[in-house]
Write a structure and sequence with these properties.
Length: 334
Amino acid sequence: MLDGKKVLFSGMQATGNLTLGNYLGALKNWVTLSDEYECFYSVVDMHSITIRQDPAELRRRARNLLTLYIAAGLDPEKNCIYYQSHASGHAELAWILNCFTYMGELNRMTQFKDKAAKHADNINAGLFTYPVLMAADILLYQADVVPVGIDQMQHLELTRNIAERFNNIYGDVFTIPEVYLGKVGAKIMSLQDPSKKMSKSDENPNGSIYLMDDPDTIMRKCKRAVTDSEANFCYRDEQPGLKNLIDIYSACTGKTPDDTVKEFQGRGYGEFKVAVGEAVVSVLRPLQEEYARLSKDKAYIDSIIKANAEKANYVSSKTLRKVQRKVGFPDRIR
Ligand code: TRP
């Protein structure tokens, strides 16, 4: 609890271009949740360097992502929107939690195995302990809920285990966080291969709609989206391409999939694809305009970065000091 509200923590990496899937599946929900919870939304730049990055590029992308959080509707006066690297407690708590995490636990993490296979030339210790840093992110703010995708569930489970282990030894230090899974239907699949999630790292750019795509590009990608030859307007798993488009349309218009099916029953896929394109454009256009406006206001963004770094440090240092005392580090002399 912070100021009488439950605490929410989540973060995204500033690598790759965010897609419509990231927006509909995560960012848009974050905005809704921000009324109910005291929220910390981090740009997790420290996680990014587990894979080699170009420094200038990382810095640019991190700022763009932070700006995008605000453009998407997160009020930076109410929500703590900040860079992970600006609150030193993340690294400090991660070290301590490393000493309460077993090699065997980290060895089981499927994301580590996947990333190690993909980056076989750079299997660094940071990649291995990535989930411990993530646990530190969450526990540092005593988060009650953590909205994440299914792919992060295993990391969240580990976070809970580490927190419980620590609490068993030292008493109630950490809040045990719950996962908050977004609504079903918000999982957006690739337009070219509806068996795969729409991803910012897809090699085929036609599979993903990027948040900064212009209207023509969005329309073209929607028109080319893979469907089927059944010519039967249904919302069902056997027609995954169409189902995905119905999900996108529904999420963008606020209609239910059933309403969408009724609306387009008996009409051609071609017509529907145009309607999907238009719906996406009308969701992304205001976002892009706000993003462009904010990006030009350097002084404003800088002031947000400064103020929220202070807030993050203030809140997180309380947990950190408590943990440091518990494990036996000497008191600071003031
Ligand atoms: N690992 C998460 C991802 O790749 C990002 C992340 C880092 C995160 N720390 C977090 C998400 C804490 C939620 C809470 O998506």
